[in-house]
Amino acid sequence: MGTRWIQDSNVTAQLTQRFTSWTECNATGDVRSLKQHLHPDLVYVSVYGRRYDRQGYLDLVESLAPGSFYILHATRACVALGVAQFEGQYFTHALTTSGEDLSAHTRFTSTWVLDDGSWRCLTQQGTFYTPDEATKERMRSLVIEYGVEQ
């Protein structure tokens, strides 16, 4: 019998907080603090199919224009042996300094490892999805509240 994965609400809360902190680093360009959330062997695959290692992802974050924000929802984590499979959805409003629009409704799956007592993201992959009408309206309202156009 193999390792049993267990859904864990405590780890879900911890990873939701870590991921939210990660996206706040993205929004503010705080690459120094962002590094604590990313495993040295990070592999990140964006909704656009672009693959980044840790340094490539940090470079991408440095290219984001001010005013980016992320709204995380519908998260869940399953854990086994110091590894967590974390999934959920988020809405991103982000532009690069060169004007590329990276805004998207994203469904993601990521793998986090417990490293010296702290969860760090090892892999993440996202895909576009179409949210339900209530979620779309909530995101539209938040875009207006943040004072950006969509």
Largest sheet: 7 strands, mixed
Query: Which percent range fits the helix content?
Result: 25-40%
How are the strands of the largest sheet arranged? 1-4-5-6-7-2-3
The assigned CATH architecture is Roll
Q: Low-confidence stretches at least 5 residues in length (pLDDT < 50)?
A: none
Mean pLDDT: 91
Counting structural domains, the number is: 1
What's the assembly state of these chains?
single chain
Structure summary:
With 150 residues, this protein is of the alpha+beta class. It has a single domain, classed as Roll (Nuclear Transport Factor 2, Chain: A), CATH 3.10.450.
Q: How would you explain this protein's 3D organization?
A:
The protein has 4 helices and 7 strands. A hairpin with a 2-residue loop joins strand 4 and strand 5. It has one domain (6-146): Nuclear Transport Factor 2, Chain: A, CATH 3.10.450.50. The N and C termini lie far apart (50 Å). It has helices spanning 9-28, 31-34, 54-62, 133-146; strands at residues 6-7, 38-45, 51-53, 69-80, 83-93, 104-115, 118-128. By secondary structure, the chain is an alpha+beta fold. Strands 1-4-5-6-7-2-3 form a 7-stranded mixed sheet.
Protein topology:
Layout: E1 6-7, H1 9-28, H2 31-34, E2 38-45, E3 51-53, H3 54-62, E4 69-80, E5 83-93, E6 104-115, E7 118-128, H4 133-146
Parallel strand pairs: 2-7
Antiparallel strand pairs: 1-4, 2-3, 4-5, 5-6, 6-7
Brief descriptors of the model:
alpha+beta, globular, Nuclear Transport Factor 2, Chain: A, 150 residues, 7 strands
